[in-house]
Amino acid sequence: MRFSEALTVVIGSGCAGLNAADWLLDLGARDVVLITESMNCGTSRNAGSDKQTYYKLSLSGSAGDSPEAMARDLLSEGVNADTALAEAAGSVQSFFKLVSLGAPFPCNNYGEYAGYQTDHDSRSRATSAGPLTSRLMTEALEASIRRKGLHILDNTMAFRILVADGRAVGVLCLDTDDGAFHTIRCADIILATGGPAYIYLSSVYPIGHTGMSGMALMAGASASNLHQWQYGLASTDFRWNVSGNYQQSLPRYISIDETGAEREFLLDDLSPREAIRLMFLKGYQWPFDTRKLCDSSRIDLLAHRQIHTFGRRVYLDYMHNPSGWSDDVRLLDDETRSYLQKSGASQRTPIERLAHMNQPAIELYRAHGIDLYTTPLRIDVCAQHCNGGLSVDHNWQTTIRGLYAVGEAAGTFGAYRPGGSALNSAQVGSMRAAQHIALHPNRLIQHPVVDALLNQTTIPIYPNPSEHTHYFQSQMSMIGAHLRDVDALASLRVELHELRRNAQQYSLDNNVLLSRDDLATQIKLNDMLHTLDAAIDSMIFSSGYYGSTGAGLIIDKTGGYLPHNDKQPNCVIETRADHIKSVSRAIPVRAFPNRDLWFESVWKAYREDRL
Questions:
Q1: Which of 320, 438, 493, 526 could, after both became Cys, cross-link 27 (CB 3.0–4.6 A)?
Q2: pLDDT digits (tens, 9 = 90+) for 231-270
């Protein structure tokens, strides 16, 4: 066992974790350590879409905007108004920090950062640096923290948060190079491990990204809205969202059976004109939405049926036009025609239209061995983002003092987040956590407290961990994703509890029984099981409270769908875990805070707070 100490530990090296560390250094914090399993892995570096969106306050044109107006657009089922207000108010400062670090967001000759409308957005607040926006952000932030000499522990897996008297006091890690355990005594922890991607098999999360929310749940932190996820059509041979221009270029949807026979399956249920209209809308309305079952989300259901009911493979074909396409765009519906004409995208084939609107979207696949000029793109309905996460306040502090959750690990979203708001939330939340730590730092506690916690710590060992991982992931993709069978979820949870009860417990000094890779696999499975238990409980509870909601379509006992119960008060579904099972409840959302905007009052309070 290795021992060290730091005042602040940041766990995760995506754009949220790097930004938290960068802000801590800028605010004069000392003795900061960043822990990461790999600097080059994770969602921020390896995920995106046709033009990955960053959502911020409007910075161009004549249309008015304000933090409260943006905050109200961030509000939806299960969203606390104080965190929404903080995300909106901090968006400009966070955005321009990225610009100053070199993130290439486009502006015109007058310095206006033009925007476009994204899903669940009432204004044109979205911007983009291209398909790899979050990677460019991460690279700019990494360059900044390396210039400042941040201490980085790479190839290190944090897996247990040590808590004493209701506050975080240390982190237990595994060195994935040599299999040694490493304990870091600390005063504050910022958890930036991303969403709990590990619980799904059909996933657009980058391979290798798992999330580690379970260690916060095991430490006693509450979670919010773990039933709220975002699912959408994505390519599977190379994991990538097929939203935006990938749909608006109007490719042909086909399915292929085991004999190689193909069919335009949308036409089994839709007219050619309606199929094209919904396909175009899918670009704007990419996430699956239970409110759009008769609209764009019908495409998701039809694709899912081809794959999981009929056993066929589904593809987007950019080489050929869909049935019903006319070279005379005047024959298309008004919205589709207007978009294509304004974009100058009336070329003869989908690939030509896509090349005109977004050539980098084609080059992205080519860089991963897929040529859209010659090869259909295989797709499925995949988990893409957790809109829930750990419960946080307006400083992104969890229910455990000194433990903060930022980025997708934090549960600041509800059913309908505007596209790109996750990147803004990652930047604002990590900034606010760093500011709060800088202004209100905790102190290190004595060594004996950490030593006593370590003496009580064991690692569960499960038989056949890889098989169990695959089993639970595949079951969740079938019964706990955009289509949810509550009875089947309850049965799966019984299996999960049985597996956890029968796990053998080994103390930390007994790790000679397992190799380095076996230890990592067991730790990941244990974290996933705790997160999955909380997610299932939230899904079961919310199905009784809200019915079908957001991206979760509840299958009733007749095989139909449970409607949304819009008479219920707007609440956060809070989940707490104990050693046996997770328990959920509905708590009222936090309203907009009463705040004094008189300048003299704000100035005085600001000066006094920083003293």
A1: 438
A2: 999 999 999 999 999 999 999 999 999 999 999 999 999 9
Domain harbouring 217, CATH code: 3.50.50.60
Domain that holds residue 298: 233-383
- Looking at the structure of the chain, the number of domains it has is 3
pTM check: above 0.90: yes
Residues 244 and 297 in one domain: yes
Q: How confident is the model at residue 610 (pLDDT cuts 50, 70, 90)?
A: low
Per DSSP, 290 falls in state G
**The predicted structure's pLDDT at residue 454:** 86
DSSP string, 472-497: HHHHHHHHBSSEE-HHHHHHHHHHHH
Instruction: Give yes or no for a contact between 522 and 460, defined as CB atoms under 8 angstroms apart.
Output: yes
According to DSSP, the β-strands at 32-35 and 2-11 are: parallel
C-beta atoms surrounding 503 within 10 Å: 17
Query: Which spans in 502-577 are helix H?
Result: 516-545
Q: How far apart are CA 564 and CA 567, in angstroms?
A: 9
pLDDT above 70 coverage of the chain, percent? 99
Q: What is the pLDDT of residues 430-450, one digit of tens each?
A: 999 999 999 999 999 888 888
| All residues at 6 or more sequence positions from 57 whose CB lies less than 8 Å from its CB, including other chains | 65, 66, 67, 70, 88, 91, 92, 95, 125
The verdict on 21 and 138 lying in the same domain is yes
Answer yes or no: do 480 and 531 share one domain. Answer: yes
